[in-house]
Amino acid sequence: MPPRAPDGGTKMGFSRRQILGLLTTPAWALLPIRFSSASEVGSSPLLVGDATFDITPPLGAELAGYHRIPGQERRVQGIRQRAEGRVLVLTAGDLTACVAALDLCAVAADFTAEVRRELWQRWGIPASNVHLCASHTHSMPSLRPFRQWGGVLAEYVADVKSKLISAVGVALESQSRASLRVGKAKAVGASFNRTAPTWRNEDEFSLNATAETRWLDRELHALVFERQGRQPVVWYHFSAHPVCFADEQAGPDWCGPVADEVERVFGVRPGFLQGHAGDVNPGPGNPWRGDVSQVSQTVVEALRSAFEKSAPVEVWPLRSAIGWCRLPLDLQMYRQWLDAYRANPEACSTGHWVDQHFAKSWYEDHSRAPWEEQDLLVEIGLLRLGDVALVFHPAELYSYYGLWIRSRSPVAHTLVVGYANDIIGYLPDPMAFEKGEYAAITVPKILDLPPFRPEAAQVLASRAVELLNV
Q1: pTM, rounded to two decimals
Q2: How far apart are the first and last CA of the chain?
């Protein structure tokens, strides 16, 4: 069943005035937005703290991201590189916000809720100010179960949660006064659109661009928090699936070598925020999965260029918000799936049915408790630092929609961060539904969701822009 919007309250930074201001928004957007804002704008310094912690999984833990039949699961046989979580904590006045980046395939809504609850109880950080982001590496476990694409080890989930909570405490203790510089550069050759032989890129995108072609965003953003007498805190944003490996070695994929090289050259270990990577693989296209050395070198060079080009930006206003969005589901297609299997199970063994094991498992569960909701309620988060806005959503968004949000944002530097606070699978363009592509038709079954309607991605993108403009 879809998640429900939590009730508002003063502890969560809920603003009734802002809710009343939404009365003119579309019907699908008539859901509360929780706000937190620093009470005295510009009167308090920005304080920044960070912490890194080890989330390397144990041997035998199930890896996520690729299909395996029951009994032949892909499990950790060795450690390619240590996996990490990284916490960024920002405070200004009476507002404190926390962002965590995790070398994981996915986080889950219930995991996020538990972390938020504990952070509120321990340190009074409102839920609307906490965002957990997965890199979506396919060489690590998921905290959310995928049907035959990766199970969940409860002990590992508990370990990640405990270490994350502790790391937030460390980051809070390490806070010091900071300013912010932002730089951007193009990581040409570090990514390609895997869904089409040709595509257009961010240089060609405009307000008149359409989803009738496929797109690619090559832009890398670097956030450099400079602290007096201390090493800077560096985070970067880029869009590309971490899928260079498909073996049974655990690690962060291309993001790990990037972090190692940046630390070696610049003396700082960066945090990574995944972008609109739904249709994007690493590398120039050959090999299809991407060569980890080539990709990491290209990303590091782009980061170097972004550092050199970085310039100071204003960090006020500082505020955080959570909005809600109802994504339309195609229950007609969903029921057709049920009817098709019921009528002829033997015919449901290839294509979007994956194989007979997957199809049987899916049908047995969904025939017992079929989905009835017309839409899926999802969360969209916003963290605003003056000239910088981070938009958090739980989807594998196609490039067009990430560029669409950025092109319409009123904020100079807008980073659209996917795989955040939950995972709902792909939000592709209408063409993917017309062609019956994997992203549109197969992945919903993996996540035990009905297929989305073709307009769902645009609904989320429009809602994100509304949140940016409130």
Answers
A1: 0.92
A2: 29
